Amino acid sequence: MTVVPRPTGLVPEHYLSVSEQLRDNARRYGDKIALQPIDGGDGLSWRRLSDYANRIAHFLEKMRVRANDRIVVLGENSIENLILYYGIQAYGATYCTVNVEINRSDLNEVLARLDPKLVLWDEALALGGPDGGQDVAWLPFGRHDSGTTGLFAALAALPATAGVAPVNGPEDICVISLTSGTAAAPKAVLHSFCNYFAIAEHVRARWSLGTTDRVLEFRSISWASAHMLSLNPVLLTGGTLLFARRFSRRRLADWIGRYSPTVIVAVPTAINMLLEGAEAGKSGGMETGMGTGMGTVRFISCSTAPLMVEQHRRFEERYGVPLIQLYGMSEGGVVAANDPETRRIGSVGRAGLYQDLTIRGPGGVALGVGEIGEIETVSAQHAHAYLHADGTVEPIRGHALKTGDLGYLDRDGFLFITGRAKDVIIRGGVNIAPLEIDNALMSHPDIAEAATVGVPDAVYGEEVVSYVVRREGRTLDAETVMGHCADTLPEAKLPKDIVFTPEVPKNARGKIDRDALRARWLAEAPESEVRR
Q1: Of the candidates 247, 239, 248, which has an alpha carbon nearest to the alpha carbon of residue 43?
Q2: Which 8-state DSSP code applies to residue 422?
Q3: CB 166 within 8 A of CB 17
Q4: Fewest CB atoms within 10 Å of the CB: 175, 183, 238, 457?
Q5: Terminal-to-terminal C-alpha distance of the chain
Q6: Segment 30-40 mean pLDDT
Q7: Can you tell me the distance from the alpha carbon of 149 to that of 412, in angstroms, rounded to the nearest whole number?
């Protein structure tokens, strides 16, 4: 197993282990529901979740699992997967999560890199079990409420009482997650118990979360973002986690009516689907018999990918509930976030708890208010390290993290993201942020999506090309789009070409795949004129 170097400790003052949090919630809240599936099935109370954690501790102790031993869990959003998420960490071992849908082709490489002590898997995934290439035990889950086979059958025979002391310290590794970049082999991020706790503290404070909050999560729980924004804050506050296997625009109104969430954790794709459904008058637009349809919802968070300003405004006008944008990274935690009371449209909010945020220019010079540069942070929220495909470990914690994102701070400390450093278009020496063009395009009422890229040009070095998705049922030509852009953009930033497309390509996390658009341009239209 790879040895992880110990960075300088940045442990939050009020740190609590996962074991302590679970035990306290069981004592204080007892039969209150902790985990509630909304696709069907009964919820699980804090007391029963704690009992399961005790059984898991006895099981792992018998297997001689120690701190930093890795247990890979292959499963979807299920109550069994969540029991394992909390139980493995409560014991003090490392929960390793792999999104099988996205990383199936990389599974053998990822398992070899993680070098797990045990692989736990959901037979519903039809993985077929071990392929013989891994010298590691595989054990199927079974079902927690009908445990006749697999892990949960074994757990049923073990005591639900405490008696096994956690094996970890605050700087041991609690979770290993995979990043969602476009590289062929995803990076694995090693998270410590204390950095995950620091992130949960941030979310609790910034969102004013309490024990009465019911947080709805429909994103994959294999993503670190789900741990940061829902799973861990619910544990810290003693609230309730409502979870679905995936987002459904058609069923959202029913979920809200039946389960009364107070917070919905979303991504721009879901926001756009709701907005498009409402404007097209489709079922699932939330307009049928429920007013705005948001009922008990205090606010909806939106992260993972940029949300255009015009979309943000239209959504709030339509649904009457605040959208709270934030900016985070698997390795960096929640770098910045808005709060419901002072949210600022167009901004991802102020620096997060424990985040020392700086904007850096060329040569690493710290920039002032309004100056665009690379976003850099030092934080107790930072993960410990990357585990690369070749097995090398690259420390993160205790060092400045260069995010690769560009932005600026206003006079009130609100952070505005202008794009990725690698995506900046340099046209005749002028730096152009694609997001600025995207925002200008999205302010047109007939445009549903837009994405801008730089393409090679013999005269200017790079030229600006924008891909545009027409709103359903609307007619729109390139000349009209160009005229609209000219109303808000200087001539140097105007797109040279408007390309209409049925959809904008995105990666697994819903982020625009600008590399795919550049490749498409080079393959299809290296010398095209504006398409009308």
Answers
A1: 239
A2: G
A3: yes
A4: 183
A5: 58
A6: 95
A7: 57
Which DSSP category does 231 fall into?
I
Phi and psi, residue 218, nearest 5°: -120, 5
Asked if the model's pLDDT at residue 287 lies above 90, the reply is no
DSSP class of 365: P
Q: Which residue has the higher pLDDT, 406 or 306?
A: 406
Distances in whole angstroms, Cα of residue 19 to Cα of each of 51, 86, 87, 287, 425: 11, 9, 8, 43, 49
- Which domains occur in the chain, in start order? 40-168 (3.40.50.980), 242-422 (3.40.50.12780), 424-524 (3.30.300.30)
pLDDT of residue 437: 92
State pLDDT tens for residues 103-156.
666 788 889 899 999 999 998 887 766 654 567 889 999 899 876 789 999 999
| Token pair in block for residue 120 | 């736990």
Structure tokens of 282? 């489709």
Distance CA 148, CA 156 (A): 9
Which one, of 361, 348, 317, 501, lies nearest residue 410 by Cα? 348
DSSP for 305-362 reads S---HHHHHHHHHHH-S-EEEEEEETTTEEEEE--TTT--TT--BEEPTTEEEEEE-G
Label residue 496 left, alpha or beta by phi (over 0 means left) and psi (-120 to 50 means alpha).
alpha
DSSP annotation of 298 reads -
Residue type, 349: G
500: nearest Cα among 454, 458, 467? 467
Structure tokens, 155: 């757990």
| Alpha-carbon span 220 to 145, nearest angstrom | 22
Query: Is residue 97 packed enough to be buried (19+ CB in 10 Å), middle (13-18) or exposed (0-12)?
Result: buried
H or E segment to which residue 45 belongs: strand 44-45
